[in-house]
């Protein structure tokens, strides 16, 4: 045992006995122990079986949803009969737009987009282009029958031009009036325009509604409130899509360059980690300082312009981001943020300088371990692929579940005074039922897709199951990666002569062991995390549903619960990582491994605290490196996509928003760097656990030598051996 423990035992044997009893017995010397054991058996078999059954059920659910669902229901509008507009092989094949008989009955855009507006809806090939009422059409029909041909395309196929207005309203075959419209989201919406600062439609401010009344454009605008914002959103979405279609290969090139730079950076860390780190620190401080100076210059320059007195509240939300850079408020905010970051970085370098030295040595050791096991740098790509598969399957299954069912029709009363409203109905016989007689003017319109079968009744439950298994699979993929990396780095640590004693393909060996023997244990650990995350989602759902009825006390309790679940989730993740390391080394079940890891950390609690501070220092250093790395990649991408690097390569000629590929490259570079440094984090944690085991098993003598490398020996063991030599 280490010298510190012997000293404590001599000083107070009872205290040491209690400490050892509470934290378990320390490891003893075993001459046959050479790292991760090969003789293993399957662990947590019951949990493995449950996990596999859940996956089989998940696959079956996806197949059943695929059979019953139809994503076209989410993409195409549906008329009052439940038929798709524009569907091939149907009478509506050439009618791709949905038309509302009386848009004034729709009270909000959400009602329109959910296809539950209390008016008849039919599929048309084009939207109306002029004002015309049914009565006016009848008068013109006596002179020229072509007017009916123009009007009938907005009527049902059974409509006739000789009905009275009363009969028309009763049969609901045609709209009482049409007005200029334009298609948006495959639906006919009013074609608003502004003339001399006044809102108009078809150069008119008032129009006839066909029922003998006069309506204003303001009423029509209120019925379609928010449509202009939706139009802007659609325009923005189309422009963003066009930018991606133009620059996708440049984005791939940029991300490839970022990956190559990450590899080069990791290679340099092995040899010049200290020099590289301090160069980055100086670079970060200089870049932030230049940013502060530039923001101050822009802030002072804008004081001379009258437009600079505007604030973000004056201009509102704009799709043209350049407008925000014309505000003093923007540059002042940037300057304050950069000043805060600059102060934090400088204080961190001053007060954590000793820990930074230790962190640099750990970074070198981690780089050496990764250099001896280079396959660990490829593993983040495999994790990304597995996570992408899980996410895509979850999204597709959710879409098919949401579009499962048969058309369901419900009674809709335009005036809202029918006792049978929202009841299920049959549109083919609706006019002959008692409901039509009791509620004159009521309609039997398509409401949504559903059904009364057992499958349709449990669709909400299937959505919950889909989400839960998705969370379980995501956490399982992460756990599998952590266990495989821990096995590879443990193999590196327990090799006496590095790299000669390191077996071939340690990562693939560890990955195979994790899949073959410990699927149940990894599923057990990931299940705990998935349950906590599911509770958090339920908590957020309840908060969203009860937001209007909450008081101050309930909001306070909600915040406390969020904080508790966040702390619990992070604590469990920390314990799980250490449990996975013990699983990778000894091959025991999850509970035993978690207990052994916890006891090991408790027996080395002081070293654990020191390692925690060092790990947090590495964490801060990591994000400073992220900042410098992503900033430089972002600057190069900015210069390229704004046509300011013609010497190197000619960028895309025309872009709607250059920030679309720019932010994509920056975010992608950050994720790539995070993936590589997650390997570092697992490497450091594994080495620390193995180091604590090494101190308990060995004493540094010739018979029981330490497996730790000389660099780590100098900073973690040397100080403990000096008192022992003095005692001798």
UniProtKB/TrEMBL annotation:
Q: Which residues cross the membrane?
A: 45-67, 248-268, 275-293, 331-352, 372-396, 469-494, 623-645, 657-682
* GO terms for MF: antiporter activity; choline transmembrane transporter activity
Pfam families, alphabetically? Answer: Choline_transpo
Give the UniProt record's GO annotations in the biological process aspect. phosphatidylcholine biosynthetic process
InterPro entries for this protein: Choline_transptr-like
What UniProt keywords apply to this chain's record, in alphabetical order? Antiport, Cell membrane, Glycoprotein, Membrane, Transmembrane, Transmembrane helix, Transport
Topological category with respect to the lipid bilayer: Multi-pass membrane protein
Instruction: Describe the reaction catalysed, as an equation.
Output: choline(out) + n H(+)(in) = choline(in) + n H(+)(out)
| Any one GO cellular component localisation term in the record | plasma membrane
Query: Where is it located?
Result: Cell membrane
Outline what the protein does.
Choline transporter.
Name the chain's protein.
Choline transporter-like protein
UniProt organism field: Rhinopithecus bieti
